[in-house]
């Protein structure tokens, strides 16, 4: 009886996704932390794939650029995980040698866990990128070489071939900081007000308490005041306070503010001056009959 023959799977067929960045400096200013831009779609293995590029990183990585390979229909996919081998790199617009080449990863998309994307939250730091020739050109192409792999004999294990593990892209379409920023903007669920030199700002005690030990003690500590729904501050520029409040919710300063106010707000945010001092508090003004 002849021995069974073993058929080796064919080598993976690699494709390349690209995303052209024509003005890095403008893109970095326009797209805030936690937001992304995406490449055109490319179909491979019966699924649609894109690059998601976060110029200012995913939430929590503001000094980095993050990149992910994203499977458009991951949440609708049924059956086994779709295993993909991939790596990222940068090159000059129009071609050239690859730079900032990542490790090679093997990850599982879709399937039972509906993973929409895998990639690198810390692909390249702003400092590294801005010291390279790409910053002088103010443009580059993000490349993702990837191949959809055949199922490995029923095994759905996900492995990483080197150093940094592949991580799951944020499932939210926005991100925590963006969602908190929206909460501040819409004032939905606000349970307190600041009055700063006659201008009113609505806020949320839980958010402020989570971000500042001073507010945490004032709102929920043993020495908390009976009324904390109204706080008057008489010694701060309203625009600078707006910047500080925005920073507490989003870890960023609003881009639309006047330069002097942004500068003052940045100093307050970085030094923690406003978080460390207790503003003057009064009761809500009563309306005379």
What number of structural domains do the residues give? 2
Task: State the CATH superfamily name of the largest domain.
Answer: Apoptosis, Tumor Necrosis Factor Receptor Associated Protein 2, Chain A
**CATH topology description of the largest domain:** Apoptosis, Tumor Necrosis Factor Receptor Associated Protein 2, Chain A
Task: List SSEs in N-to-C order.
Answer: EHEEEEEEEHHEEHEEHHEHHH
The CATH class of the largest domain is identified as Mainly Beta
Largest sheet: 6 strands, antiparallel
Number of strands: 13
Tally of individual helices: 9
Helix coverage percent of residues? 25-40%
Helix-strand makeup class: alpha+beta
The pLDDT mean sits at 75
Task: Catalogue the unreliable spans.
Answer: 154-166, 168-173, 270-289
- Rounded to the nearest angstrom, the radius of gyration is 25 Å
- In whole angstroms, the N-to-C terminal distance is 106 Å
Globally, the shape reads elongated
CATH architecture classification name of the largest domain: Sandwich
Taken as a percent bin, the fraction of beta residues is 25-35%
Pathway: Protein modification; protein ubiquitination
Organism: Eragrostis curvula
Domain MATH: 14-146
GO biological process, one term: protein ubiquitination
Question: Any chance you could write out the topology, listing elements then pairs?
Answer:
Blueprint: E1 15-21, H1 24-30, E2 37-38, E3 42-44, E4 47-54, E5 64-71, E6 82-91, E7 105-109, E8 117-125, H2 126-130, H3 133-137, E9 140-148, E10 167-168, H4 176-186, E11 192-196, E12 199-203, H5 205-211, H6 213-220, E13 230-233, H7 238-250, H8 259-271, H9 273-276
Parallel strand pairs: 11-13
Antiparallel strand pairs: 1-9, 2-4, 3-4, 4-5, 5-8, 6-7, 6-9, 8-10, 11-12
Helix pairs in contact: 5-6, 7-8
């Amino acid at each position: 009886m002849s021995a069974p023959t073993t058929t080796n799977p064919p080598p993976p067929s690699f494709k390349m996704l690209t995303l052209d960045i024509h003005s890095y400096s403008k893109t970095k200013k326009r797209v805030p932390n936690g937001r992304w831009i995406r490449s055109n779609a490319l179909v491979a293995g019966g699924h649609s794939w894109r690059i998601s590029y976060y110029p200012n990183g995913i939430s929590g990585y503001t000094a980095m650029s993050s990149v992910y390979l994203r499977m458009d229909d991951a949440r609708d996919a049924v059956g086994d995980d779709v295993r993909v081998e991939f790596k990222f790199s940068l090159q000059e617009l129009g071609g050239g040698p690859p730079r900032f080449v990542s490790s090679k990863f093997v990850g599982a998309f879709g399937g039972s866990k509906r993973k929409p994307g895998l990639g690198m939250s810390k692909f390249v730091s702003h400092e590294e990128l801005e010291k390279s020739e790409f910053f002088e050109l103010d443009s580059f192409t993000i490349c993702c070489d990837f191949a959809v792999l055949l199922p490995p004999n029923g095994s759905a294990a996900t492995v990483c071939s080197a150093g940094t593990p592949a991580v799951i892209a944020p499932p939210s379409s926005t991100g925590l900081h963006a969602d908190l920023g929206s909460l501040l903007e819409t004032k939905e669920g606000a349970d307190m007000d600041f009055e700063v030199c006659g201008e009113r700002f609505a806020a949320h005690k839980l958010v402020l308490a989570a971000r500042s030990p001073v507010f945490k003690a004032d709102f929920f500590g043993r020495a908390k005041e009976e009324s904390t729904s109204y706080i008057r501050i008489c010694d701060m520029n309203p625009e600078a306070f707006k910047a500080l409040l925005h920073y507490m919710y989003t870890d960023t300063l609003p881009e639309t503010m006047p330069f002097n106010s942004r500068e003052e707000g940045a100093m307050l945010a970085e030094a923690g001056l406003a978080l460390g001092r207790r503003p003057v508090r009064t009761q809500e003004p009563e309306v005379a009959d």
